[in-house]
Design goal:
Elements (H helix, E strand, L loop, with lengths): L2 H7 L2 E8 L5 H8 L2 H20 L23 H31 L5 H12 L9 E7 L5 E3 L8 E7 L2 H17 L11 E4 L4 E5 L7 E6 L6 E6 L3 H5 L3 E10 L5 E10 L8 E7 L5 E3 L3 E3 L3 H21 L8 H26 L3 E6 L11 H26 L2 E4 L20 E2 L2 E3 L6 E3 H11 L15 H16 L25 E2 L5
Parallel strand pairs: 11-14, 13-19, 14-15
Antiparallel strand pairs: 1-10, 2-3, 2-4, 5-9, 6-7, 7-8, 9-10, 11-12, 12-13, 16-17, 17-18
Length: 517
């Protein structure tokens, strides 16, 4: 492939930016009137496409039917219905992707034989849970008759063939998908959506020739031939962001009924970093992050969040005594907003700093707030906001800097010794980690980050242990410990004796990153 061809194949990233509008009330009212019919169409389109999935038909990226073939009626135009279809397709495609990931975890944690799991993996990869019949391509060695499951070209000495999936395995795959959809990944209700995704056929973005505004958005309304011209002003983040403005508009209807116009910019994704070490990253107990090389980041964040929590709890008690619902109180909502913004800013600051270091990637686990002396509600909010902020920022760093991010199973990372591998409930007490077997003593969050880093070896293609059930992970860890030391791990409550020949490592000296308010 030529250099030009390689450049054309480079992946593209898309970033969304809300821009302020200065349209008059009449224009905004005509655009807002789209929401009701749009929601109804989303609900009808979702029901129609979901029925297709249950009938074993794949989702089509482009709308395969005419407007007259819809199972619902709508006052939207044909072009608007196509935008509704695209929005519904994106939502259901994301949902089936989540179902596929959850089903893969079920298969990984099962006790099925390798051949059965291989077939189920391939059915799951095709999202063919509800297929009535399915045939999978295989490769057959022309000399030995060996059979391999593969979608690739057969190659020299191999012949391409097909094998049907048995009705029993299709039924098992269908049961797994239903179980996941019922208990783990709920089907979204698009009829309650407050977002309208409009492509260029009904919402055209044009640069403004008027110095007062930067862009005009031409939105098709419910009245045929009538459009609303919406002026937008670009802020510095949008103006300085790399890439070209996309001919696509995301229209959000906020809780107060106001409209938010979101434009997108497209630019090439950074290529992966060619070399460097990996760094383990753990969500800390008294800090936002701990790293496998012995650093703590965001130490000053937890006391600040704890103080916000104290003020929020005092206010909550006062409001409850007065019979006022918390969600209706502006001051209480402001506490949540301040905490969310603070967490996002701290997460971005820390991860930005780590991304500038000479590393190839980060090994992370699922975000989980485990301490800090905060209330249950604050735990929930910190975990929720922190998880969303970290996930979004890591995805951004992958696209912008080429940083590799590997997510590993988080089970028992807080109880496993990074030195000898013992998993024991007595290993950790608060911020202190003292192994019951090898005697290693260190900071608990640093130990957790090192365990996270060690699980990078689990992250290999086809490794069923990457995302297994907790019981499966525990058995694997205990088996590794026994194979390494020649004895069973100490049971719950036992003290354990350091294995002769094992060396106690000195506790790492903590280097606390300075906090900037």
């Amino acid at each position: 492939m030529t250099a030009t061809g390689a450049a054309q194949k480079q992946a593209i990233k898309v970033r969304a930016y809300p821009l302020p509008t200065f349209a008059n009330e009449g224009k905004l009212a005509r655009v807002h009137a789209l929401l009701g019919p749009w929601r109804d169409a989303l609900g009808g389109m979702q029901a129609q496409l979901h029925r297709q999935i249950l009938d074993g038909q794949p989702l089509m990226k482009r709308m395969p039917t005419k407007i007259t073939d819809l199972t619902f009626t709508t006052e939207l135009s044909a072009r608007q219905v196509k935008s509704v279809y695209n929005q519904t397709f994106q939502a259901l495609n994301a949902w089936t992707g989540s179902v596929r990931n959850a089903v893969r975890e079920l298969i990984s944690g099962s006790s099925l034989d390798d051949e059965t799991r291989t077939v189920l993996y391939r059915v799951n990869a095709r999202k063919a849970w509800y297929a009535k019949e399915l045939v999978l391509p295989i490769k057959v060695n022309t000399a030995t008759g060996e059979v391999r499951h593969s979608d690739g070209k057969p190659g020299k000495g191999w012949a391409k063939d097909e094998v049907p999936v048995s009705a029993e395995l299709l039924k098992l795959s269908r049961r797994m998908a239903k179980q996941v959809g019922k208990h783990a990944v709920s089907l979204p209700d698009l009829s309650r959506a407050n977002t309208m995704l409009m492509d260029g056929t009904i919402a055209q973005v044009e640069p403004s020739k008027n110095s007062s505004f930067d862009y005009w958005v031409r939105v098709s309304t419910l009245t045929k031939g009538a459009v609303a011209w919406i002026p937008l002003k670009a802020h510095r983040f949008f103006a300085n962001a790399p890439g070209e403005v996309s001919g696509f508009v995301q229209l959000n209807v906020l809780k107060d009924g106001s409209l938010q116009f979101v434009l997108q910019k497209k630019s090439p994704i950074a290529r992966p970093r060619p070399e460097g070490d990996y760094l383990g990253l753990d969500w800390g107990m008294k800090s936002l992050f701990a790293t496998s090389d012995g650093r703590l980041f965001g130490v000053g964040a937890m006391p600040h969040l704890t103080e916000l929590d104290r003020q929020a709890q005092d206010l909550a008690k006062s409001l409850q005594r007065q019979g006022i619902r918390l969600k209706t109180n502006r001051r209480y909502r402001n506490f949540q907003r301040r905490m969310r913004e603070y967490i996002v800013n701290e997460v971005n600051r820390i991860l930005n700093k780590l991304s500038t270091e000479d590393i190839q990637g980060l090994v992370v686990e699922k975000v989980d707030a485990r301490g800090g002396g905060m209330s249950r509600d604050m735990h929930r909010l910190v975990t929720r906001f922190g998880r969303a902020a970290i996930k979004k920022k890591l995805a951004s760093l992958q696209e912008d800097t080429g940083l590799d991010v590997i997510e590993v199973n988080a089970a028992y990372t807080s109880r496993e010794c990074s030195s000898c591998g013992l998993v024991h409930d007595g290993n950790r007490k608060g911020l202190k980690f003292s192994c019951r077997f090898c005697g290693r003593k260190t900071h608990a969050d640093i130990n957790g980050a090192r365990v996270v880093l060690s699980r990078r070896s689990w992250h290999t293609q086809g490794d069923s242990k990457t995302k297994s059930q907790r019981g499966t992970v525990r058995r694997r860890l205990d088996d590794v410990f026994k194979a390494r030391w020649g004895c069973a791990p100490p049971t719950r409550g036992s003290i354990g004796i350091r294995k002769p020949g094992s060396r106690r490592r000195p506790a790492v000296r903590l280097v606390t990153a300075p906090h900037r308010g």
